[in-house]
Design goal:
Elements (H helix, E strand, L loop, with lengths): L7 E5 L4 H12 L3 E6 L2 H13 L3 E6 L5 H15 L4 E4 L14 H29 L2 E6 L12 H20 L3 E8 L13 H14 L3 H13 L8 E4 L6
Parallel strand pairs: 1-2, 1-4, 2-3, 4-5, 5-6, 6-7
Length: 244
């Protein structure tokens, strides 16, 4: 059930992985979650699950590479609820390959989803939060924003960029809290789409062996949201103890 402390929380990429785990955690905490992703069948099932457990939730189809789609997702939630308390820019893709493979379509997809998608979310939510004088933007980065590995140059580049824009937004903000959450290996579907098949398979095996549950990342996000409005958790870097 919601409480006087409940927040309206928007989550992109909410159909699986960290996004779905965060929806479960925040709904259990009493927040109203607005879920966005392309796979509406999964969103529908997740919302039904959350409501059955006593939470409040809704879903809307979302393509973060489209500025119009993100604007509609954010402004629609604002119109329905009168405010947006938290935006979690979580949608992401990771198609690993060596640069000389020249998988340029996948390069562009990672730039469009990981970086432009985050920028679209900020552009849609920030004016609404600034006008209200409060809000919280949480961008999901990666431990790949702090080191570069072979086969991951483009993915790392997008996450370095998300880290930079998040820090810039933090420095420019007084009334809006800004948090970067950077997980290491995490159990999710991130390694299941695109990229060089052999490299993706190796990354998937490493994630299964060394990764932490997506719920652990959701717990960190919930902790940042739960802080008083006067406290801004700027950056969280987290890995499983098994990851070097």
């Amino acid at each position: 059930m919601t409480s006087p402390d409940s927040k309206i929380v928007l989550i992109t990429g909410a159909s699986s992985g960290i996004g779905a785990a965060t929806a479960r955690r925040l709904a259990a905490d009493g927040h109203h979650v607005v879920l966005g992703a392309r796979r509406v069948d999964r969103l529908s099932a997740l919302v039904a699950e959350l409501r059955l457990a006593g939470g409040t939730a809704e879903y809307h189809q979302l393509d973060v590479t489209s500025r119009d789609s993100v604007n509609a997702f954010v402004t629609g939630a604002h119109d329905r609820h009168g405010r947006i308390d938290v935006l979690i820019n979580n949608a992401g893709v990771m198609a690993l390959s060596t640069l000389d493979a020249l998988r340029t379509d996948e390069w562009e997809q990672m730039i469009d989803v990981n970086l432009r998608g985050t920028l679209h979310g900020v552009a849609a939510a920030l004016p609404l939060m600034r006008a209200r004088g409060t809000g919280h933007i949480i961008n999901i980065g990666s431990s790949a924003a702090y080191r570069v590995d072979p086969t991951a140059a483009i993915y790392c580049a997008t996450k370095y960029a998300v880290r930079a824009l998040t820090e810039g937004l933090r420095q420019e903000s007084r009334d809006v809290r800004v948090t970067l959450v950077s997980p290491g290996y995490t159990h999710s579907e991130l390694t299941e789409h695109g990229g060089d098949p052999q490299i993706q398979s190796a990354a998937r095996a490493a994630s299964e062996e060394l990764g932490m549950p997506a719920a652990a990342v959701a717990d960190a996000i919930a902790s940042a949201i739960a802080q008083p409005d006067t406290v801004d958790i700027n950056e969280i870097i987290m890995r499983s103890t098994a990851q070097a």
